[in-house]
Design brief:
The complex is a heterotrimer of chains A (about 400), B (about 325) and C (about 300). Chain A has helices at about 1-20, 45-65, 85-95, 110-125, 135-140, 150-165, 180-195, 215-220, 235-245, 270-275, 295-305, 315-330, 335-345, and strands at about 30-40, 75-80, 105, 125-130, 145, 170-175, 200-205, 225-230, 255-260, 280-285, 350, 355, 375-380, 390-395. With about 400 residues, chain A is of the alpha/beta class. In chain C, a hairpin with a 2-residue loop joins strand 1 and strand 2. Mean pLDDT of chain C is about 85; it is low at about 90-95 and about 295-298. Classes of the chains: A alpha/beta (about 400), B mainly alpha (about 325), C mainly alpha (about 300).
Chain lengths: ~400, ~325, ~300
């Protein structure tokens, strides 16, 4: 019997060792802890995650170098979501309960944001959605969630407007099978019904995990539409674009390629697509020729100094997310969630892209900065930097199809 | 390629008596370990670490269920995570579309996953080794593809929001612990009964077991169904704990984690996989903080254990205790 | 046959050729050791990275990088065989269940290990391999195809033909076939079965890596890129009759065409499920595969 017991104890000792390992709670500390959920490993977009991380770090440095917020430094606590809702959910949970952060930001994928906001809502922690475009995030009406970034309805109406100005008759969207992709494909359809009701529109959803899209593309070759709208993200988007080009579908003399998902400013864009990107029209949230407040210039320069890369939209969205939190802490004179949420709701702050305020209307406009600036530009050469591309229209100005570059027959 | 001669691989299962004693020792060790786990909330109130332990218990149930199938019956299924996913979607869909209360949904999940397990178990009855692994792997991938592509029903990768069950984290902790202990007792009783003998006889030599009059078809299928039902139960509990059901629950990587826990803990031992589930999961949370090497480390451990220490941590621990006892 | 059907058939056949490069090695390993190598996709992944990084980072010409990818894959195959497959020989004549379990666990673990190691060491970013030729489009009657894909298909045909010929007529090929037909008999007849296994693993790793390299300009290298070709290979090996090389080649082309048409005429979303369903049906009802001899016991 003694032998048995001794053996029992061993298993027990193992378990105890496992459990006692690092049970160290978060300490109340001087710095203002801001939680960050981003993708740092696949299958989500690591490129996006890295851009957001750099943007937040640039902004944190600017705030901290200027003495912090009322003397308190900003400290970022970063969690990897892999772009998976389930991981995003547990990441927010971890930040809220273990790290006791005052606010959460950084999320750049809609599906991950949708899982994350549920937890933020449960713990009543302010959540600044950096780049989740899905309208559903807004439609939930959670008072904790603020959206200084782009939203699907905005892209939908921009894309529809561009299609109208191009004078096309048949349009096909190729969307990834996520809430982001399908939501955007539907939003474009809705907007087209309003601005150009005679355009024939349909969308195809493709699995983002897929590695070969030829079977979806071949049928288009026989009867190519006038425009194809890309609503997929890398790396699937790159494979799809290469195959569209290889099959002569788009960009071609007959068919425009329009990118609605912000591909052009990824650092690995040209390495992955080459000719397939030449002639692509881009819905852009940032272009160096855009008008920008002084803070935007400062952040852009700091980013280039830090990473040697050209500034990009996610950098500014991420930086604004953090500036908004700092601004709200300052005005609320507290890091208490309720006071912060109230202060965020009353935001009137000139960030890197313009003056940010949050709408209180219901639906997609809830807690949304409605006037997110955008442009349309065209990539006219392989390996062209966004800064050298042709800015073909700013918001509100019409686009002239005759001035666009088009591949020869 | 039917098994011919009956060399018992571990060499320690040579009689009913011995096997029973061994199982009892393991059962007691597991109970003591669970008793300690039960005391933890008295000292640890941080919801994050409680959450980590709750997920460990989820994996402990899955590892235990898979161990019953693979370790004790020799049916090497690569679909344990899939049955958890099926359980989670059963209660998730019932709750989401028909407002079925979670407790009822969990019961339905056990029934549905058990039935699917029964059907699959019946279908793969004749398959062994690589054939069984491939068939169950395909089943797992098909189910995951269906879950992530039936967007109109499951909302795809976005996941399905479902109702919670308890507000208190400590409550969840004891609910999962209760479930784990209940299954542990169930498996113990099963293994101590004639069924346990039959299952292990089938694992060691199916042909001989059949000749000795064991109803091979019945017991193999039953093991499949029970294992699937237990996994579905864990998945359903987890669905209401996380309040989100996604196809990720059925990812092949999840199965990898379950297999790792079982192999590292010791296949065919009652306590090993349970204790290893805690070790592996808690350690992986910690490794995530120090550079995210958790999967590299565990995958390497799996290969090393499979290559050199077939009986896992449990076997190592037993050998150490025996040496100590002799000294 | 309308234009699109010709397209689908041609593209399906080309995809099938790449599948065949992958599946031959898996089939050979099954033949000789009666195990499924669950790390087979990672040989492909390593090949894709080896080619891409050797060419891009070291600036080595693509025509040298391509055979180097084969060499890297073969070395990995050799290492795998030497370190992990040896226990499979012991007591080979008595098929214990533990043996099958060991093979599944150890190759499954190796797969997880390699994916995550590359993810950590090389990074999770996708890399596009440099194409062998820059010509982007070639018109072949009704079919449009990229220059690289066409050239890669040609190379694949050549490599498959050489491999099949070697297995059929070369000295070692005959030994390998002897071992896979009857290991005990072969070993009694004085064939070095251990050496046959090493050769098969090196060939298998090399071919899979070669496939990864050839496809890297089309399917960018990433840590998890080996998963899909591995799953296709499992399907093919089952369809072709486990262990049969000609069966695997025919099944590869068959699967490529089925998927190509199925994606258009049935469902693109569920394209990857077709093969898996076929695999399950075959294993359950016709385990000898499309062409295998009847009565093989499984």
């Amino acid at each position: 019997m003694a032998g048995l017991l001794r053996r029992d104890m061993l298993g027990v000792a193992l378990t105890v060792a496992a459990i006692m390992l690092p049970v160290v709670g978060a300490q109340a500390a001087d710095p203002i802890k801001v939680g960050v959920t981003i993708t740092q490993s696949p299958p989500g977009s690591v490129v996006q995650g890295t851009q957001v991380k750099d943007g937040l770090e640039v902004a944190a440095k600017i705030i901290n170098d200027a003495g912090g917020v009322d003397g308190r430094k900003i400290e970022l606590v970063i969690e990897d979501t892999q772009g998976l809702p389930e991981k995003a959910r547990s990441a927010v949970e971890k930040l809220a309960t273990r790290d006791k952060v005052v606010a959460i930001t950084g999320e750049h994928q809609s599906s991950a944001a949708l899982a994350g906001i549920e937890v933020a809502h449960r713990y009543k922690i302010p959540y600044i959605n950096t780049n989740g475009w899905s309208d559903v995030i807004r439609e939930k009406g959670y008072p904790e969630v603020f959206n200084p970034g782009n939203y699907n309805s905005r892209v939908g109406s921009a894309a529809a407007q561009t299609m109208k100005e191009l004078g096309v008759k048949r349009v096909v969207s190729i969307a990834e099978n996520t809430d982001y992709g399908i939501g955007l494909a539907k939003a474009i359809g809705e907007a087209l019904k309003k601005v150009a009701p005679d355009v024939q529109y349909k969308y195809e959803t493709l699995d983002r995990a897929s590695k070969d899209f030829l079977p979806a593309i071949l049928p288009m070759r026989a009867n190519a539409p006038d425009a194809i709208i890309n609503l997929m993200l890398p790396p699937a988007a790159y494979i799809m674009m290469n195959q569209l080009y290889e099959q002569g579908v788009a960009p071609s003399a007959k068919t425009w390629l329009y990118d609605g998902s912000g591909l052009a400013d990824y650092p690995d864009f040209w390495q992955n697509v080459k000719e397939a990107g030449k002639g692509m029209l881009v819905f852009g949230l940032y272009h160096p020729k855009m008008a920008q407040p002084a803070l935007g210039k400062q952040v852009g320069e700091a980013y280039t100094a830090k990473t040697k890369n050209e500034p990009n939209r996610l950098l500014f969205q991420a930086a604004d997310s953090l500036f908004l939190i700092a601004d709200a802490v300052k005005r609320a004179k507290s890091t208490d969630s309720e006071a912060l949420i109230k202060a965020l709701g009353e935001t009137k702050y000139t960030g890197t892209r313009g003056e940010i305020t949050f709408s209180k209307d219901k639906g997609y406009a809830f807690n949304q900065w409605l006037d997110v600036p955008y442009v349309t530009f065209q990539l006219t050469e392989v390996n062209q930097k966004v800064g050298d591309s042709a800015l073909v229209s700013q918001a509100g100005q019409p686009l002239d199809p005759a001035k666009l570059w088009k591949p020869a027959k | 390629m039917a098994p011919s001669s009956a060399t018992s691989p571990a060499g320690n299962r040579s009689g009913a008596q011995l096997s029973n004693t061994k199982t009892t020792v393991e059962f007691r060790a597991a109970l003591v370990a669970m008793a300690i786990v039960a005391l933890i909330p008295l000292g640890v109130s941080n919801p994050y670490w409680l959450g980590v332990l709750i997920v460990s218990m989820y994996f402990a149930i899955l590892a235990g269920a898979w161990n019953l199938l693979a370790g004790y019956t020799g049916q090497f299924s690569l679909a344990p995570a899939t049955f958890a996913m099926i359980g989670a979607y059963t209660t998730g869909l019932l709750n989401h579309y028909f407002g079925v209360p979670p407790l009822l949904g969990i019961v339905a999940a056990v029934v549905v996953s058990g039935l699917v397990g029964l059907l699959l178990g019946r279908a793969v009855l004749r398959l062994v080794g690589p054939y069984l692994a491939l068939t169950t792997l395909s089943f797992a991938e098909i189910m995951r593809l269906v879950a992530s592509n039936s967007i109109d029903i499951t909302r795809g990768d976005l996941g399905l929001g479902v109702a919670g069950l308890l507000d208190s984290r400590v409550g969840w902790y004891y609910l999962f612990l209760g479930a784990l202990v209940a299954l542990l007792v169930l498996f113990y009783m099963l293994l101590r009964s004639k069924a346990g003998l039959f299952l292990q006889a089938i694992r060691d030599d199916e042909v001989a077991a059949r000749r000795a009059g064991v109803n091979v078809v019945f017991w193999k299928t039953a093991a499949f169904a029970i294992s699937a039902a237990a996994s579905g139960f864990a998945g359903a509990l987890y669905a209401h704990f996380a309040e989100l059901v996604t196809p990720e629950l059925g990812l092949i990587g999840q199965t990898g984690l379950i297999v790792s826990m079982t192999v590292i803990g010791g296949m065919g031992t009652l306590a090993g996989p349970l204790v290893a589930a805690f070790l592996v999961y808690v350690l992986s949370e910690w490794l995530r903080d120090v550079g995210g090497y958790q999967l590299v480390v565990f995958a390497a451990l799996v290969v090393i254990f499979a290559r050199f220490f077939r009986e896992g941590l449990w076997g190592l621990a037993r050998a150490a205790v025996q040496r100590w006892g002799r000294a | 046959m309308s234009g699109i059907d010709v397209d689908l058939a041609v593209n399906g056949l080309i995809t099938g050729l790449f599948y065949a490069l992958m599946a031959i090695g898996l089939s050979l390993i099954f033949g000789i050791l009666k195990i499924v190598n669950f790390a087979h996709g990672e040989f492909y992944m390593v090949g894709a990275y080896a080619y891409t990084l050797i060419a891009l980072a070291l600036g080595v010409p693509v025509w040298i990088a391509l055979p180097l990818a084969f060499v890297v894959g073969a070395l990995l195959g050799w290492l795998t065989e030497r370190t992990l497959m040896r226990p499979l020989y012991a007591g080979y004549t008595s098929w214990g269940l533990m043996r099958d379990e060991y093979a599944v666990i150890v190759t499954f673990g190796l797969s997880l290990f390699l994916i995550n190691l590359v993810d950590k060491v090389v990074g999770p970013y996708a890399y596009r391999g440099p194409p062998l030729v820059e010509t982007s489009r070639v018109v072949l009657g009704p079919v449009l195809i990229s220059g690289h894909r066409l050239l890669a298909a040609g190379i694949a045909i050549a490599v498959i033909a050489v491999t099949a010929a070697l297995i059929k007529w070369s000295f070692w090929g005959q030994q390998i076939r002897a071992v896979s037909q009857n290991r005990l008999g072969a070993s009694l007849a004085g064939i070095d079965t251990a050496k046959a296994s090493v050769i098969v693993f090196m060939l298998s790793g090399g071919l899979a890596a070669f496939a990864g390299a050839l496809l890297s300009p089309v399917i960018n290298a990433s840590p998890d890129v080996g998963i899909f070709p591995a799953i296709k290979s499992y399907i093919i090996v089952v369809l072709g009759g486990m262990g049969s090389v000609p069966g695997a080649i025919i099944a590869s082309l068959f699967l490529g065409v089925i998927e190509s048409f199925g994606a258009v005429y049935i469902s693109f979303q569920y394209r990857d499920a077709f093969g898996l369903i076929l695999l399950m049906l075959f294993l359950l009802f016709r385990p000898q595969g499309l062409f295998g001899e009847k009565g093989r016991e499984v």
